[in-house]
Amino acid sequence: MPKVTRTKRTTVSIYLEEFPNETFRSDGQVLYCQSCDKSVSIDQRGQVIQHINASKHRGNRDRKLKFQQNFISTSSESTNSKSVFNDDLCRALIRSDIPLFKLKNVAFKKCMEKYTGHKIPDESTLRKNYVRGVYEETISKIQNIIADGPIWVGVDETTDADGRYIANVIVGKLSTEPSKPFLLYCEELNKCNHKTICQLFNNAMGVLWPNGIIHNNVLLLLTDAAPYMCKAGKVLDTFYPRIVHLTCLVHAFHRIAETIRFQFSEVDSLISNVKKIFLKAPSRVQTFKDMYPDLTLPPEPIITRWGYVVISYSDAAMAIKKTTELIESKNLQNNLAFISTNFRFLVDTISKLKTSKMPLTESLEIVDDAIKQLERVPGEIGVLTNSKFKNVLEKNPGFNTVMSIRDILLNKTPNNNYSEIEYTPKEIICIKYAPVTSVDVERSFNRYKAMLRPNRRHFTFENFKLYVVSNFFPHEDYDSELIFNF
């Protein structure tokens, strides 16, 4: 009897009956896999089997089935209870720094609803009902990770785009292994003085330990060398008896860079003026690029950026060499050569000290090497910079203490010039990875300023600080759950 050729409709129907647990559907002509969002060839049964056994299909199918189960369970929830999907969505938007008002975008909203199967809430719903929950979850995770400590604390203050005094408090756990810092507290200050800093510090510790501040487990305080910060450190020493106040060592090297800048006024003026020549002058910029395509434009000097002065001198030297028509003083080339030869190491020193998770011994070894190189700088400039740096270190209240701890960790006899320490052996071991810079606080300010974009200036600070703290949390290391349970 001759073989009867089956129609496509018949073949598709057979496969749908044979594989009822698969996510296949058909219009009578094409076998379509909903999990993979593609059609499956029906010419041979082996091709269908191969598609079903593919790991990609199995993963897509399991995810699809799990999504359907979650959709059924969330649909049956009471309207008064919070939606798990909304909570996950709010968390994902905050930690990705995606403004909640993006949910008003029709295209974005339709796309999310199409591929998630959930109704996308209004941004006001998330802001009023879910943002604080994400913040409280973040604080709870920080509390669980830090536990009873011991801890180090970094405090700094800045002025934001709205002219507010903003202070951030960073905490990290001191242990024998490197740990990540957390932004614990962000607050607006009415005034910036030692009293407000002390109050800020105590409030932050109250957030970390709501059942009672463990004063003896705060071992290290990192700030800049501003007078009000130093005064705050002395006041806090009364209430936190084991705390050591260390001012940022990167700031110390920045002070040296400022000293160098003041000694070479012609170079400083030239760098500023060269940049001004190219501002709002596209024809000059194009001419410069045509003549010297391998050179970048002279950098714009930013005095408040650590080490930028020295970097400007070194990098601008090449540009200035090619634009000799701008140079009138004969001493400029000599000054640039002197700076590059004797102070180039400051750039590398600052860059190395800003590295995260560096052992205390390595950080202080970098400082020791820099001190030795400063001592080798010849002439009056060398004497001036060396004297300046020694003066800065003498005013650093915790420098001698951390140097003594460094010597103990290296099994060296502590220098007589260093102070005696009162830490227990267990506490000394925990200080192995203690930071010596406040760069983590500076990074939190960078994140803060990046989030405070012009289209977010209507934020109330009470809401905005919830966003900042939640966004800064290193969730990729501490969140084990999936953001969306599809």
Automatic annotation (TrEMBL):
GO terms for molecular function: double-stranded DNA binding. InterPro entries: Cggbp1, DUF659, RNaseH-like_sf. Residues 121-277 form the DUF659 domain. This is DUF659 domain-containing protein. GO terms for biological process: regulation of transcription by RNA polymerase II. It holds the Pfam family DUF659. One of its GO terms (cellular component) is nucleus. It comes from Aphis glycines.
